[in-house]
Hints:
The complex is a heterodimer of chains A (about 130) and B (about 100). Chain A has helices at about 10-30, 35-60, 80-105, 120-125; strands at about 65, 75, 80. Chain A has about 130 residues and is mainly alpha-helical. Chain A has one domain (about 5-130). Chain A has a two-stranded antiparallel ribbon. In chain A, α2 crosses α3. Chain A starts with 9 loop residues before the first helix and ends in a 6-residue tail after the last helix. Chain B is mainly α. Helix content of chain B is about 70%, strand content about 5%. Chain B is built from 3 helices and 3 strands; from the N terminus they run ααβββα.
Amino acid sequence: MPQLAWSHLSYLAVLGGCLLGTAPLEVLLRTGVYRRWLRLVLALTPGLVLGVAWDLYAVHAGQWTFDRRYVIGVSIAGLPIEEVLFFIVIPVCAVLTLEAVRRRRPGWLIGDEAGDSGTIRAELCPDDDS
Amino acid sequence: MLMLLGLAGAVSVDLLLLKTRLLLRKAFWVAYAILFGFQLLVNGILTGIPIVSYRASAVVGIRIGYAPVEDLGFGFALILLTLSCWVQLGRRERSAAR
């Protein structure tokens, strides 16, 4: 591994910033996204697989390049590991944002609510009564 | 163009395959508007530093901020696909709980 300078952490820092920036949604708005980790992992998988495949194609076709000065230098199938993590971090932020909107505007349905009765909301979010 | 294929795929998943119809829901568009703002910021950092560089001939050249329109299209597809799957899994959990 090449000698590591602070600059090599740039891309990782951007991704870390995304996770840190959205973490308050889970804590303050109690979005319950990380708590439902299995659902989260399953929801991320198609985007991760397709995203990495598309990215590999684009990199091998020379459509874009990553500057080695700003990545830690660990690659998966020729992609910097940061680029693979991108396809995990951004979707996590997306789910957190959607759930945050739901918490703020419960009347704006997203499609997984129970029928038209309000009773099941308590079932979906067991901590609602606190 | 590969980006249009990605967009068409994600739209098909949402409207036809899983029928989550997030594209017709206000909550989705509000969430996307928030994400879009941060996407421009993150893309600005990635291409401004530049951690990622695009070959000029590989993008059509339309940019919003620093972001090539291809990236924004793929971002939209990634977000829509993920959220559609998220909602579908929630539906399945609910029907399984009954």
